[in-house]
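Example 445.
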Amino acid sequence: MAKIDKLMDKLVSLSKRRGFIFQSSEIYGGLNSCYDYGPLGVELKRNVKEFWWKAMVQSRDDIEGLDASILMHPRVWEASGHVANFTDPMVDCKVCKSRFRADELNDKKPGQCPKCGNKDSLAEARQFNLMFKTFMGPLEDAANVVYMRPETAQGIYVNVYNVMQASRQRIPFGIAQIGKAFRNEITPGNFTFRTREFEQMEMQFFVKPGSDMEWFEYWKAQRIEWYDGLGIRKSKLRFHQHGPTELAHYAAAAFDIEYEFPFGWKELEGVHNRTDFDLKRHAEYSGKDLNHFDDSTREKYIPYIIETSAGCDRTVLTALIDAYDEDIIEGEARTVLRLAPMIAPIKAGVFPLVKKEGMPEVATRIHHELKKHFNVFYDDGGAIGRRYRRMDEAGTPFGITVDGQTLQDQTVTVRERDSLAQTRVSIDKLVSFMQEKMAGYKRVD
Ligand code: GAP
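Predicted structure in complex with glycyl-adenosine-5'-phosphate:
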């Protein structure tokens, strides 16, 4: 990997140019911290979600899926502690009207605005609740307030016994969910790293009290391994343990999985031991008995919860940052996304070497055949080198070229994005060739 200057600027520009990520409502000047995924971005994001779902739900016998609604009974957020505690201290500058999170201000320059530089311009800190409010029904009054969920977790907690009974699971078992969450962040930023609308991939694992720390260690190990499978370089990942002052009100232990972003080491995912806090609170606020009765041991208890909480948009951003590279091929600069093949938006570009001699017809046939298995892209515009470069920049792992020899022996050239190796492959073996290469992929640090 080359050292890349101004990586974030380049990535933002590539994201727009190639259709990964656009600013929301751009023609109106954009909406701060909201983003839209374009044709390549939506494929990448879907692939990340699918990889997570496969690892966390489909490949396991002890985890079930769920898709809970975004709007929930407002009492849920009282029980969870979000109404009282989901706040950030916010400070306003009286001169330039900028807003800051109090913990982001410079302790050495109290009262001075970090933006306009005016001394003694900062007002007293105020608590600001990060939940978005809206109204259910036609009356916009306090009785009809509902919240846009700030995390997907609570939809899982309130459904634990529904899922358990319906699926005939026994403790220990988990429930996984991917869905949107909303936080009225005071200082969003760093492209899609911190936004006000984002998707989470959360899994809540319900265990017997006493076995919680063992499961906590198990899930820590599983989750960091998952990023390796996703093709993120290991040297860029680490754990950060929450100290006593960082621990959330519900957590007995918490570790963040952090990635070394161009703007520093930052949280990618949280692994939390939430104890019996959540179910106890929901029992108290709903008046329902949320004890679990284990008929094999005749024990009754409120399950402990081990949570793995990942940000989907943040994972996509990480995959893009980690994949971005620049090198020189045959004296020409190239931008390449070294995405793991299984998350790459397009798996192969299919190219006729020239637009004559029957090559476009053969390439079109291959394109249609491969489309039954993978997302592939047909391109017959411009020099072959340029077509390769366009696919490199989109993170496409394979380039398939139909040339004169193809017409003789039904083989094509497969060019690999990272090694630049070129292999002659028979057309009828293309699918298995690509599948084997993708399955054997290992990211080099
Ligand atoms: N249920 C626990 C929970 O929500 P969290 O640490 O607040 O824990 C989990 O959030 C993950 O969600 C974070 O590690 C991050 O990846 C993602 N996330 C949180 N806030 C975000 C935001 N404003 N923008 C993008 N992703 C965010």
